[in-house]
Write a structure and sequence with these properties.
Blueprint lengths: L11 H9 L2 H11 L5 H7 L4 H13 L3 E7 L4 E6 L1 H4 L2 H15 L44
Antiparallel strand pairs: 1-2
């Protein structure tokens, strides 16, 4: 059960969580970024009930984060592919991964390294100023309520 809808709150974080905030959804997105496309492959990768997986995939399709494409006619079979809107979630997942690597990896360390393909250096997610490019922390910003 998903609980109370957050979409009516006047908060972009709450509205986003209403779409992608459920734990299985983020793991489905992780798998999609790692090339998983078919329902059976998502099901094999995640210890999630099939009805929950179907619901989460449907939600991602409904919100334009994944698109459902038929790849076989008889019997009809479908795959799920990230849309441009879905690809925009990549920095969010990488930020969560890096936070988990830093704070929750334990003695064994992170389970994977995410490296830049051409130079094989580790990646870093950052929040930066759109004008000057300076990296930002929570102490560097001044939130202002949007007045229409």
């Amino acid at each position: 059960m998903r609980g109370v809808s957050l979409s009516s709150l006047n908060c972009s974080i709450a509205r986003t969580l209403d779409v992608v905030g459920e734990r299985w959804t983020l793991l489905i997105l992780r798998d999609a970024f790692n090339g998983v496309r078919r329902f059976e492959d998502f099901a094999a990768s995640l210890p999630v009930a099939r009805n929950v997986l179907a619901d989460r995939l449907a939600t991602l399709v409904e919100h334009g984060i994944l698109r459902r494409e038929q790849y076989e006619e008889r019997p009809p079979r479908f795959q799920y592919r990230l849309t441009p809107k879905g690809f925009e979630l990549y920095p969010v997942l990488m930020a969560l991964l890096q936070w988990g690597d830093k704070h929750l990896a334990g003695e064994q360390g992170p389970p994977i390294d995410v490296l830049h393909g051409p130079c094989e250096a580790p990646i870093a997610t950052r929040v930066v100023c759109t004008k000057c490019g300076e990296p930002l922390t929570a102490r560097d910003v001044a939130p202002r309520r949007h007045v229409p």
